[in-house]
Amino acid sequence: MLTLILGGARSGKSRMAQKMAARYQRVCYLATAPPTGDPEMIARIAKHRADRPAGWQTIEEPLALADAVERVAPGTDAVLVDCLTLWLSNIFWEHRDAPATAIEQALRTNLQRIALAAKACHVILVSNELGSGTVPDASLTRAFRDMQGLLNQWAAQAADEVLLSVAGLPLHLKAAS
Known about the structure:
By secondary structure, the protein is of the alpha/beta class. The protein has one domain: P-loop containing nucleotide triphosphate hydrolases (Rossmann fold), CATH 3.40.50.300.
């Protein structure tokens, strides 16, 4: 099963995803945020680590997301990926000189592979909904926002279930059959 949980900043999407994953015995938390020298980001990562149950396996993978999901899915009940937005940011930076079509193809291929891996266990994807904000004035920021919107659409299409977290409350956009 593949679940996508969308939401804005501090909407409760990660907490919602963790609550969903906590129903399972063997959980792998796939973190996409690379450790940086930014003290605020280091504190956020530490808080996320502290919030997770001690028995969960944690893998920090900023780029090779599908590889990591495929590797752990057969031996787990649930894989929680937090989050697609940071993963996209990492991909954007890693392939900053690549044409947008190459990035799009890489994203689609990764999502297809993740959807296939979700046949072995419950994969829960967390992603930011950026489309409700203002139009950024910088072209790079607009390109990122646009690509995030496409990534969310592709993930929602592949997902069995899609939830939108607003103020910590779930809004079911696509129900699992």
